[in-house]
Amino acid sequence: MEFKQLVEVAEKWCSSVPFDLIFAEEDDERRLDFYAEPGISFYVLCPDNMTGGTENFHVWSESEDCLPFLQLAQDYISSCGKKTLLEVLDKVFTSFRPLLGLPDIDDETFEQYHAGVEEEPEPDHQQMGVSQQ
């Protein structure tokens, strides 16, 4: 994919998450830098099969506080199959949810699912053969 298209995908992704694309550079390496408050930053090196560059996406952070959270995304990238930039960015976002003060994705799904469900009172159980009058 051309770098310009990757930048467009990144910008669109940023419109729905708390991250901003703060730097996009194609000259030395196809690199996209992202930042979100409170001081969360990471970058993505994009594949460049045309010039013999990296074959897969690579995510990293220069912040030691952020690095442990990127492990999930790094494991995902190194697993079988080619990944798209959007898939990689979504995995990074999931990884950083705790640092962003957001609930885990599983917790949020559970809450949304149960938000409209009200518990019904249990019916009174009648004993067989005994009428209640």
TrEMBL record:
InterPro entries: Maturin. Residues 110-133 are annotated as: Disordered. One of its GO terms (biological process) is regulation of signaling. The lineage of its organism: Eukaryota, Metazoa, Chordata, Craniata, Vertebrata. Its main location: cytoplasm. Keywords: Cytoplasm, Developmental protein. This is Maturin. Signal peptide: none annotated. One of its GO terms (cellular component) is cytoplasm. It is found in: Cytoplasm. Belongs to the MTURN family. It comes from the Eukaryota.
